[in-house]
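Hi L.,

You mentioned the student needs an example of a multi-chain input paired with its predicted structure. This one should do, with 565 residues in total across all chains.
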Amino acid sequence: MKAVRTVAMVFLILIAVSAVKPEWWTPAQYDTQFRDAPDAPPSTRFLLGTDSLGRDRLSRLLHGTRVSLVLAPAAALLSCLVAGALGGVAGLAGGWLDRAILAAADLFLSVPWLFLLLMVRACLPLNVSPMHSAAITFVLLGALGWAAPARVVRAAVRQLKDSDFVFHAQAAGCRARRLLWRQLMPNVAPVLLAQFWVAVPAYILAEATLGMLGLGVSEPLPSWGGLLREIEGSALGSQMWVLAPAFLLTAVVGSFRLILPREDYSV
Amino acid sequence: MPAMKAFAAHLLRMVALVLASGIACAILVRSAPGALVDERELDRRLGEDSLAALRAQKAKEAKLGTVFVRYLHGLILGDLGYSESNHEPIAALIAERAPETLRELAIGLAGAWLLGLGLAIPSGRWRQSRYIFLAYDATSTIAAGFLLSLPAALVAYLCLVAGAPASVVLMLVLAPKVFQFARNLIVQGYGASHVAMARARGVGEARILWAHVLRAAAPQLLAVAAVSASMAIGAAIPIEAICDVPGLGRLAWQAALARDLPLLVNLTMLVGLVTVAAMAVAETVSKHGVAPAVGATA
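Structure written out for the whole complex:
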């Protein structure tokens, strides 16, 4: 299992490195049109062919990878920060604040996440610049994904709050701020880290679903969701290379799942 | 009496959550850009009187509190309002679309559970004993991992190309999740000491599975069942939108794009009600309805 994890990690690093500067490996920018070669099959000039507008598919795939691989972890970080803050406050404060935060989390969890995501995204402006649409999509993912991790953090904080070492620290005169930073935070950090790693592949998949429904990152900026949408108009039997984004997405999400600590995603 | 009190508390919580989700949805849609603008105002054929009537109608809808109170009053009388984007009463729309979604959810969920649990049981039963089942376990886990790494919308599109119905898509989306949870619970169950004891006493494998493994895992499996119902409702939207199924999922997607406030509020409350009810049933049954397995706590 360790060897498989190492392979997954190396694969992710390779993909991340190739997506950092896509211009180094590709013949053009993601929006450069080769009007003499629309819908071209794979060749030495265009390794994955071109789309119907004559844009190099490999360039778009690598740029799309960069968008998804940068913004999905950013969204996961945002949801973990919100979850950490709200879950921590609920666990520490208790009383009405705890009940209010739990009620808000229940409200978010009372509607399926994908339903909520689609509703909220559809209500936000769709005719915005590509960069804005990318920002809206991923901020939304981060902002709506806090409820489940917040409950986990709250439970962890409550458990820690009642533990012996916190009691001893309090008895030794440890102040609230020091207690939080030196005693509680180091123990909650692994919980938040696990939530972060679970959220990244989930957000990549959610963006892909939004993109396929036309609610994700807008053209011409590529993302995996937008690239998967192009599959819909293609003849899969004769143009298998249009499935390249699907293969890459599956491999990356699968690798993320493999590198998760086993206990964090198995049960 | 305590059971009645707990039931009443559950019911109250459910109603509060469903109402809150409806209010949150109404606020969200009302604050969406362009929500208070009627496209018909751009129609040059409309006279001043018609335009004034349209604006007056929109101004009435701007008062969210009044609209929601009126909606609740209508709800009590069985009137769910009128969908502007579909030009049809919402109750009729839901009645028309619900059977398709319910059929799809029922087949999809049943298939997912049969497939997921059916694949998980051999994984747990023979995992430790035979090499062939080690290979089986690895293969089924990899297959489940592969399906879990695909977005629901892509699975829907690939199934559409292959000519598979939406219920099969739902089954393929949910089965790996069910398998993943069930496999771990069943492997854990077969590893328990009371199972070894039962085997040593000569209890049959079917009885061990039913009375010692599945029964011990029942509370967690019920919780997974509730979660899978919620996931199925969420997954139904992209699946129905891609597969062009005339169900509630597609209706919700179209309503969101058209910013049809009354329809969205109704659908959100309906989805919220089903999700919260599924969770509550699972919680209640796992607390009161399932007796602990023989020796499960030993």
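You could point out the following to them. Residues 2-18+51-258 of chain A form a domain with the MetI-like fold fold (CATH 1.10.3720). Chain A has one domain: 2-18+51-258.

Best wishes,
N.
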